[in-house]
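Subgroup meeting minutes
Present: P.N., E.W., G.H.
Scribe: E.W.

1. P.N. recapped why we're keeping a running log of single-chain structure predictions: easier to compare across weeks, and new members can see raw inputs and outputs side by side.
2. G.H. added today's entry (380 aa).
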Amino acid sequence: RLRRSELVLKKFGLLPRDFDLGKFMPLLLKEQVAGYYDPKTRTVNLLDWLGADQQKPVLAHELTHALQDQSFNLEKYMKPVDADLAKKKEITAQDIENDEVSTTRQAVVEGQAMVVLVDYMLEPMGLSLKDSPQVVQALKDGMLAGTPDSVQFRNAPIYMREALTFPYRYGIDFIAEVLIKGGGDKAFAELFRNPPRTTRQIMEPQTYLSGERLEPMHMPDLRQDFKNYDRFDVGAVGEFDVAVLIDQYAGSAISKQLYPAWRGGYYYAVRRKGDPAAPRALLYASRWSTPERAANFAAIYAAGLSKRYLHVQDVPEDGQQPAVETAALDHLTGKRTWLTEDGLVVIDVHGDTVMATESLDQATTEKLQQEVFGMAAAAK
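Output recorded in log:
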């Protein structure tokens, strides 16, 4: 499963092609862990390289996990949503919607523990998290920067740094906002009874508090459309994923402006049957708040192709001149095609929906265009 994730992240350009995720993860985690709670043995573990003063706030954090487990059973809370979609025969819109639940519940668990840690540290000064936002910001900035000894973390790709710190950085903001707006019970016990379901709700707590419900994206007949391919992996591409993708290709300022316009997304990765040498192929569909935002995202996604492939050549549509350099565009509408060393890349934008196919044959791409955009239009 880790190997599949690695290959899909490389296909999106979120990991370098020569990156070994299996070797990197243990090295990264080994230098980051200061303590942990084991729900199987119900034991708190502290690493002995921490000084006593450092151990105390870590212990406050880990004992929060022990209390969560005592009240709500952490394994049960996390396990039902830790399904491997690649093992399911039929993929539904509900499966895609549920694919981020594990990440959001981890953000709840870690965010609550971070709030307790901060309050523990501030209590001797008569302060709390509510009246010390600068302390929270400094803590989050420190997480993303890493310590001088965090060699693996500081050298990690953007996606790895963001993914590792997401439950803590965004989790603490989410819990703090729910705590301020809804009180203690809503920020703690209620989040186990009614947990958030998408990274959008974690990153934008008001969407959780208001009960926002996004319409699920309509799924094409994937088994029939990909009858000449074997499925390799499938999953959601949530607001967190697009935020990192935009950050990587256009910078954090543009990412912060654009990612709140996300309204849904999924990927479907396949391999051509009987051809082990063929490149892995990809369908990626995403939905945005407005056609303008969809066009903005499509242009950023297209501009990233030159960083993901060694050779990218524009393929004009019949009777058209070669398109303007993608890197110069701030929006992309309609259909654009490029030829790469791994085959064709097609990005098509209709209204608020963006569809990208990579390394698929033309007939499959055209069939997917009809279904994805036909369903999007029918939904309106």
